[in-house]
């Protein structure tokens, strides 16, 4: 796989991951506005706790897994395109799933809060990590060299 193809695929994945919760949010809001109006707050709390637990455990785990996949980057070499794509998809899936769990909780419980909060946090965790491809082209030096080392995005 070439760097250009990996970056193109990364942008496609990132855009799909960006639009999926947005479309689900529209469906959720439509059901809240035009739905039957039955609320189940206890079910909402269960989804809230599940999405919060997911975000607290899976997001740091995804970054640790990407750290392992980007092993060559930490040694001062660039990352191969397949590893770049795997690493980025890994850190995108964790908040994506947590946000979808929270939005499904809004849908099933019939109330916006508290489930809208983990969905917003998931979006804030996901959005800044758009694909740049820098890890594939930059050779940044060893991680212990503060003058040339940069964290990958």
Automatic annotation (TrEMBL):
TM ranges: 12-34, 46-65, 85-106, 112-130
Key words of the record: Membrane, Transmembrane, Transmembrane helix
Listed name of the protein: Uncharacterized protein
Species this protein is from: Natronomicrosphaera hydrolytica
Lineage: Bacteria, Pseudomonadati, Planctomycetota, Phycisphaerae, Phycisphaerales
